[in-house]
Design brief:
Chain lengths: 213, 441
């Protein structure tokens, strides 16, 4: 089988170093987590996006000067619905986007719970971004921009209001995360890959060294 | 929860999670519940360390074991055979993407009060004092024949018919009692000597699995996942969720609802979810199980590696039953901070065997003696439960308890047998190819 990650986007492979990061999405059901990723990775939006089925993780690259940042984006696969997300999900995540719906104050409250959960469970230097999604529905706004921004500042989170529908700030939030992630030779991943990945090849030992090669 | 599902799976132990994944992948609508607030059931890795002390009803020592979250303590010790069925399942379902493994440093076997490294290559084989020079030559001939043996090709039999019993094969190669012990228990990984009187194909198959597994990563035939075995059920649960499986933890189950002799649903907290099939571990249907034995396990925290293992960071030791006048082998599995299962400077060893007497803990003594000083010891004696029927009539398919073996082969046998009983078809490893790493749509 293929190892983690897939074919490089042509714009990513040419020069400079490539850093790979695991990014997890969190947030209440139906706030648009999958839609944000689909917009970012495929440039698509579906008004009636089905609940997440079938996506193990998606990858997308962002170019910063001489560095290509490759995100391995994990979706919850719906396991958040009944508060049944496995610890494995946060494991080794270097970035997280916590999503809420600006038209639904409950989802903002829930987003705060996720932030706490990340601060408790995830690695200490994880980069967390808060995304107030569905910004195109501003006429139905129930969560004030200032309130969310103040909360984000208190907790040292990146913050943007986004719209997967109009693409507003979608690329920007990923880019902001990419900028904030450590990209030096050694600090690319808090724990460089230390184990073997299994594959189909006989004698197929494959150990990937760190993130930046 | 008031919905209709094809299958309701109860318990998130490894077997249930693999089945949940396989069934979701094959298009079944699956609801998967667990009464505990965490994944893994019996095959969980407990974290933080306080949870281990609480689980065994001991008081938690203060500030002794570093950061509690660094600990992921398995309740059931096992390693993966690098070329075994679980690895095949992990690869073919793509679950391996969520996991990282380390090769186990060394496998040891107990003989006459001492432990010897099981040779991992020709050089080690030549140097070992496990057997004498002439015996080595005879053993090499035996291994060569095993390697060339093909059940489908009588030309490879060379006088060893598949139905010849294992003992006769040993005799044919003039292997002495010690070598027989070593082969049957440290390579073929039989738990007792019942195999001696059975057809030799099983012995040959198991020796092959060992050498093929050894060939994959070198140091030993075993692999262990970083962060503990509890990662395995979580990985398969994610697979199931990705294919539409619904997960509810912390969900008590009140009743399996029956009609006309077969299952029609599961009741929980006043609601009933309808289904045509239930898959569960024995603790969810105790009245449909029988006790077939007991396993005793001692989880030991050490602050040093196991003596005489060249400071191995992960080690297996097999004590063949004959060596200590028992009927069943004693197993020692040790992992360490190198696997992200404990704080730096600590080691986690589990000694386990099948219970034979009324003093189970004492039966572990030969294994415990090999460990050196023990900081903390948690002992458990658990019943081995088995379903009283195969589930094909009442559509309640119950897995067996995890046995004392140190690898996952019997676990996978049970999973594959359950899959066949549930679906009426063999699970075809070659058919399940996840299409691509990026997206599976």
């Amino acid at each position: 089988m293929a190892s983690r990650g897939g074919p490089q986007r042509p714009n990513g492979a040419s020069q400079g170093k490539i850093c790979q990061f695991k990014l997890v999405l969190l947030g209440e059901s139906a706030v648009g987590k999958s839609s944000l990723v689909l917009r970012f990775v495929k440039g698509q939006f579906h008004e009636y996006q089905e609940s997440t089925i079938g996506a193990a993780f998606l990858t997308q690259t962002v170019c910063l000067d001489d560095t290509t940042v490759k995100f391995e984006i994990w979706d919850t696969a719906g396991q958040e619905r009944y508060h049944s997300l496995a610890p494995m999900y946060y494991r080794g995540a270097q970035a997280a986007i916590v999503v809420y719906d600006i038209t639904n104050p409950d989802t903002f409250g829930r987003a705060k719970t996720w932030v706490k959960e990340l601060q408790r469970q995830a690695s200490p230097n994880i980069v967390i971004a808060l995304a107030g999604n569905k910004a195109d529905l501003a006429s139905k706004r129930m969560v004030e921009f200032d309130e969310a921004q103040a909360y984000a500042e208190e907790n040292s989170l990146l913050f943007m209001e986004t719209s997967a529908k109009t693409a507003m700030n979608v690329n920007d939030i990923f880019l902001a995360i990419a900028k904030k992630l450590p990209k030096s030779e050694t600090s690319g991943t808090p724990q460089p890959r230390q184990g073997v990945r299994l594959n189909n090849e006989q004698g197929g030992q494959q150990s990937e060294g760190g993130c930046c090669k | 929860m008031d919905e209709t599902y094809d299958v309701i799976v109860m318990g998130t132990g490894l077997k249930e999670c693999i089945l949940s994944g396989m069934l979701s992948v094959s298009g079944k609508k699956v609801l998967h519940v667990d009464r505990n607030p965490y994944y893994g059931g019996e095959s969980a890795s407990l974290t933080p360390i306080d949870q281990v002390f609480e689980h065994f009803k001991k008081s938690v020592p203060e500030n002794k074991y570093g950061r509690g979250r660094e600990w992921n303590v398995d309740l059931i010790p096992k390693f993966l055979m690098a070329n075994g069925q679980l690895v095949k399942l992990l690869i073919h379902t793509g679950v391996t993407r969520y996991l990282e493994f380390k090769s186990v440093d060394g496998s040891y076997v107990y003989k006459g009060g001492k432990i010897y490294k099981v040779p991992a290559d020709e050089k080690e084989a030549l140097a070992t004092s496990l057997m004498g020079l002439f015996e080595k030559r005879r053993f090499k001939n035996f291994l060569q024949h095993v390697q060339d043996y093909n059940v489908d090709d009588p030309k490879t039999y060379k006088g060893v018919e598949p139905n010849m019993v294992a003992k006769q094969v040993y005799e044919k190669y003039s292997l002495d009692a010690n070598t027989q012990d070593f082969t049957g228990h440290a390579l073929a990984l039989f738990r007792n000597d019942e195999y001696m009187a059975k057809p030799c194909v099983d012995l040959i198959k198991r020796c092959r699995l060992y050498s093929d597994s050894l060939a994959r990563y070198g140091k030993s035939p075993y692999l262990y996942p970083l962060y503990g075995l509890g990662e395995l059920p979580q990985g398969f649960a994610r697979l199931s969720a990705i294919y539409g499986g619904t997960y509810m933890l912390d969900k008590p189950v009140d009743e399996i609802v029956m009609e006309d002799g077969h299952v029609v649903g599961v009741k929980s907290q006043g609601e009933t979810a309808k289904c045509g099939i239930v898959v569960c571990d024995p603790t969810y249907a105790p009245d449909r199980c029988k006790k077939v034995g007991q396993v005793v396990r001692a989880i030991c925290i050490l602050n040093h590696p196991i003596p005489n293992t060249k400071d191995g960071q992960s080690v297996q030791i097999i004590i063949p039953q004959n060596q200590v006048s028992r009927k069943d082998d004693i197993y020692v599995c040790m992992v360490s901070a190198a696997h992200n299962v404990c704080a730096k400077g600590y080691y986690l060893a589990i000694v386990a065997t099948t219970v034979e007497t009324s003093d189970p803990e004492a039966e572990l003594q030969p294994g415990l003696e090999l460990l050196g000083a023990i900081e903390e010891k948690f002992v458990s004696v658990v019943d081995l439960l088995e379903p009283i029927d195969d589930g094909t009539e009442n559509k309640i398919f119950i897995s067996m308890s995890y046995d004392a073996t140190t690898h996952f082969e019997t676990t996978c046998d049970d999973v594959l047998s359950l899959f066949k009983r549930i679906t009426g078809e063999d699970f075809d490893f070659s058919k399940v190819q996840h299409t691509d790493t990026e997206t599976v749509e």
